[in-house]
Structures are given as structure tokens and as C-alpha cells.
Design brief:
mainly alpha, about 0% strand, 2 domains
Length: about 130
């Protein structure tokens, strides 16, 4: 049962890593008496391979860093007066906030689509 789970864990690895190392890793797992430790190491390897080696960490960092650029805009928001409509869209501050948020969203979406396009277009040519 644990061997089957370990083979599933190997299937979750990125394709390049799996093609290069999965047979050796499975052979070592079969011969080792410490199967639980190897299973834990395999789980850590999946996380490490997908986050660090695949470039997924860049997307996660961009997802966190993008909203951080909006923090200076929070200084423009008036303090709530106890009512839900403290910032109204028909005021100049509300209008600027909507335009700023829409602009950040549009630029972020454009960058994500451009990076994705060039990344996949580069793979097709190679």
C-alpha cells in the first residue's frame, strides 16, 4: 500500500524530474527499510520541485506583491464614519480609487497574459 502511494507521489512530480529520477527513486524505496522517511522526503520533494524549480514561486510572489502596491492608496480612503457608504463612488476620492484599482487590475492581467504567451510560444519553437 505504501509503495502504491509512493508511486502516486512520484507521478505528481514535474514531468522532467519524473522522467529522470522516478525509476531510481522507486528502486531505492523498494530496497530501503525506512520507507516512511523516504515517503516524507518524497512529499517534500514534490513541494520543492513544483514551487522552486518550476517557477511557480514567481506567480505566488506576484500574487502577493501585486496587492501590496495598493497599500499606499489606502491612505486616501477617509476614515469610516460609522456608515457603510463612507467612500462613495460619486465623490472624487471614490472615482480615483475605482480608476486606480481598474488600472492595476488591467496592467496585472496584461503582464500575466504576456508572460504566459511568451513562455508557451518559446516552448513551441524550441
Amino acid at each position: 500500500m505504501l509503495r502504491w502511494l509512493y508511486s502516486v507521489l512520484l507521478l505528481i512530480h514535474p514531468p522532467r524530474f519524473r522522467r529522470r529520477f522516478s525509476k531510481d527513486m522507486l528502486m531505492i524505496f523498494d530496497e530501503s527499510p525506512k520507507k516512511a522517511a523516504l515517503f516524507a522526503d518524497g512529499a517534500a520533494s514534490v513541494t520543492r520541485q513544483w514551487l522552486l524549480r518550476s517557477g511557480l514561486w514567481k506567480w505566488a510572489l506576484a500574487g502577493i506583491g501585486g496587492p501590496l502596491t495598493l497599500l499606499p492608496g489606502l491612505a486616501l480612503i477617509p476614515k469610516p464614519s460609522g456608515s457603510l457608504d463612507a467612500v462613495r463612488l460619486d465623490t472624487p476620492v471614490g472615482f480615483v480609487m475605482v480608476i486606480a484599482l481598474a488600472s492595476v487590475f488591467a496592467v496585472s492581467l496584461t503582464l500575466i497574459l504576456a508572460v504566459t504567451w511568451f513562455r508557451f510560444a518559446g516552448r513551441r519553437r524550441a
